[in-house]
Amino acid sequence: MRKVLLTAASLAALGLASCQPASTEPNTAEAEKPTKAVEALTAAANAGQENGAPTLQEAKEFLEQAEKDIIELSGFAAKVYWIQANFITQDTNALAAMAGAQGAKLSTRLANEAKRFNELSLPADMRRKMDGLKRGSNFPAPEKDGAAEKLAKIMTGLEATYGTGKFEHNGEIINLGQASDIIATSRNPEELQSVWEGWRTISPPMRNDYAKMVDIVNEGSRELGYADAGALWRGGYDMDGEAFVKEADRLWGQVKPLYDQLHCNTRAALNEKYGDDIQPADAPIRADLLGNMWGQSWGNIYDMVAPKGGGEGVDITALLKENDYDQKKMVEVAETFFTSLGFEALPETFWERSLITKPEDREVVCHASAWNLDDLEDIRIKMCTKINGEDFVTVHHELGHNFYQRAYKDQPVFYKTGANDGFHEAIGDMIALSITPEYLVKIGLLDEKDIPGADADLALLMRQAMDKVAFLPFGLMVDQWRWKVFSGEYSESEYNSGWWELREKYQGLRHPGETRPGDAFDPGAKFHIPGNTPYMRYFLAHILQFQFHKAACDMAGFEGPLHQCSIYDNKEVGRRFNAMMEMGASKPWPDALEAFTGTRDMDGSAILEYFAPLMTYLEEQNKDRSCGWSK
Ligand code: X8Z
Ligand code: ZN
Predict the structure, then answer these.
(1) How far apart are CA 598 and CA 579, in angstroms?
(2) Residue 382: what are its φ and ψ, rounded to 5°?
(3) Distance (Å, rounded) from C-alpha 51 to C-alpha 274?
(4) Three-state SS at 411
(5) CA of 400 to the centre of ligand 2 (A)
(6) Nearest to residue 28, comparing CAs of 597, 586, 596, 421?
(7) How confident is the model at residue 469 (pLDDT cuts 50, 70, 90)?
(8) Which of 256, 304, 318, 335 is paired with 445 by a 20 to 30 Å CA distance?
(9) Higher confidence at residue 454 or residue 306?
(10) Is there an atom of ligand 1 within 6 Å of 19 CB?
(11) How much is the pLDDT for 50?
């Protein structure tokens, strides 16, 4: 979405937090402590200022005016973006590009003006706001004439191309939703390959524009003092960018052994089903066989890896259908989870204004998102919801964004965003981890007599792992690719080969077919690339949601295994969760993490604890297999 053209903080103001822009928060290690003494000294120095350098008073006025400017523009732009995403036409694209250009100009202007106060000693809170402004947006436009307009036009065009993408399959024109259904359910490798390749015919026309966009945002980033846009993004985590890269690597190192075991077991199942020609037992996994268009979560092929001998687990898709759930009911039930924790119900306007089923009569951006149109209570979701277990989780994910947005609505505009962007993506997912069989009984979806016995634990864990553990390296590789694109390590002609290099390295996947076409731009067939949404947030969220879940279950006094815990209806957990959420980005993220979990570090040990019984099972299954995929 074009929201990324405004500063991240202003976007939070825009409230378009669906796929939150990377935080603009400053490196507070450098920010001074807000002691009264410092403030007094600063004031004294400022009062006597005679050399034309800016004063504390000017800094205050600048921040106040910036806040007003951001609120004014974002209030307007949010409506334009909403209409465009709900009604994609030439005209709405043009309007969105205009709003985007205005946003880009505003964030560039504010970033440059904020530099004026670099040498001024400021109280920590003002320094934090100032540094946030200086980071501009994730896709900054250079100052030169016409750059903001050009950038906004390209970005709008890329997203619209994705949103309206269609291709021919068996003589019929199909869209992403239809193609995804085939990938999820077909077990015919020729058909899977054809649909997988078909969807990727929508993206070659994006490649050249994408390269132009990279040049523009790199120039904009250099003007802001960053080596390139990747460095700008990595700088958004209250720590030095290099330290953040190490942090992400450390977290991946923690969870990789679990992924490796899951990969090995899944590949063996695919090899058994399809044979050596389609899926060899020692090569990377063919990406079209995993039940998901991008091979990012594998729950749709759970049937192939279901542990034998134990109980069955719970098939939420089947339960939703048996109980005649429609899309609205799915959202209502998700809302009830939040209200059970003590959060206030969604406003009436949420129900009047959200889009929860795919309209047949017009083009919309179907990729699920959550919005806050007025920065206060006008929260909405927009998704082409399907009645299945996957989207039941996504509905919780989106409402997590909305409840977070509303929780921090009283913060100044600069702080109306997640503690870091991973937090924003983790809230609803954390809630969805509490969808246990016992919880499903409480909400009447499952009959008490159908609660699976303890022997079904492995089945439940395997279902979860096929989505959550499988996702981890994908969550990591998408921005590894973008960082290399921004740094120039991958040139335009290497975009696709670079993508597959990383797909193999991190996920152990390969594409179907011998080669990809020379003009292929497979990254463009994943929403967040043309949609220009940073992706590292989802990797972090997949770590954080388990960390939050563990902390919540400890708070609730739950003593059993982590995967059996549900925090449904626990007001004390809700109160403490809300206390973290209402902080927004007003403090560095370790402060927010500490407020809820008692620790200041992101940590993969909770996800390992959650899946510990499955890890034991997988190691046993894999013991005579040769795992790994390196040649
Ligand atoms: O994009 C999303 C959300 C909106 S922020 C639906 N997700 C990522 C994806 O679909 O690729 C959630 C999980 C990962
Ligand atoms: Zn999200």
Answers:
(1) 13
(2) -140, 110
(3) 77
(4) coil
(5) 8
(6) 586
(7) very high
(8) 304
(9) 306
(10) yes
(11) 54
Q: Decide whether any atom of ligand 1 lies within 6 Å of the 18 Cβ.
A: yes
Are the beta carbons of 181 and 391 closer than 8 angstroms? no
pTM over 0.85: yes
| The predicted structure's pLDDT at residue 597 | 98
Q: How far is the CA of 423 from the centre of ligand 2 (A)?
A: 10
Structure tokens at 127: 């320094």
Ligand 1 within 6 A of CB of 20: no
Please give the average per-residue pLDDT across 543-561, as a whole number.
98
Atom of ligand 1 nearest to the CA of 18: 5
Cα–ligand 2 centroid distance for 32 (angstroms): 33
Residue tagged active-site, from 263, 528, 549, 563 = 528
pLDDT in the model for residue 35 = 41
pLDDT exceeds 90 at position 510: yes
Please determine, for residue 353, whether its predicted confidence score (pLDDT) is greater than 60: yes
Tokens 């880009």: give the residue. Answer: 104
Q: Is the CB of 538 under 6 A from ligand 1?
A: yes
Amino acid (one-letter) located at 619: E
Q: What are phi and psi of 371, to 5 degrees?
A: -130, 155
What is the dihedral sign for C-alpha 30, 22, 607, 482?
Answer: negative
| Residue 520 confidence (pLDDT) above 70 | yes
Q: Is 539 in the pocket of ligand 1 (CB under 6 A)?
A: no
Cα of 123 from ligand 1 centre, angstroms: 37
Q: Which residues 6+ apart lie within 8 Å of 570 measured at CB?
A: 340, 341, 552, 555, 556
> Would you say residue 490 has pLDDT above 60?
yes
Best residue for ligand 1 mutational test, from 381, 481, 538, 542 (most atoms within 8 Å of Cβ): 538
Q: Token pair of 104, please? A: 């880009």
- Decide whether any atom of ligand 1 lies within 6 Å of the 117 Cβ: no
Q: How far is the CA of 368 from the centre of ligand 2 (A)?
A: 8
Rounded to an integer, what distance in angstroms lies between the CA atom of residue 156 and that of residue 147?
14
Bridge partners, 380 (sequence order)? 371
Annotation marks residue 549 as catalytic? no
- Using alpha carbons, list the distances in angstroms from residue 407 to 3, 462, 583, 592: 21, 34, 8, 13
Please tell me the predicted confidence (pLDDT) of residue 1: 28
User: In the predicted model, what is the mean pLDDT of residues 468-495?
Assistant: 98
Q: Do the bridges between strand 172-175 and strand 379-382 make them parallel or antiparallel, or are there none, so unpaired?
A: unpaired
CB 219 within 8 A of CB 147: yes
Q: Which of 369, 308, 255 is nearest to 603 (CA)?
A: 255
CB 122 within 8 A of CB 130: yes
Angle of helix 327-340 versus helix 389-407 axis, rounded to 10: 50
Strands 285-286, 509-510: pairing is: parallel
The answer, yes or no, to whether residue 170 has pLDDT greater than 90, is yes
For residues 394 and 386, the answer to whether their CB atoms sit within 8 Å is no
Structure tokens at 256: 């990789």
Q: At 630, is the pLDDT very low, low, confident or very high (cuts 50, 70, 90)?
A: confident
Domain assignments of the chain as residue spans, ordered by start: 3-161+209-233, 316-458+548-580
**Do 380 and 353 contact (CB within 8 A), yes or no?**
yes
State mean pLDDT over 158-175: 97
CB of 535 shorter than 6 A to ligand 1: no
Which is the catalytic residue, given 219, 335, 398, 425?
Answer: 398
Q: What is the pLDDT of residues 246-281, one digit of tens each?
A: 999 999 999 999 999 999 999 999 999 999 999 999
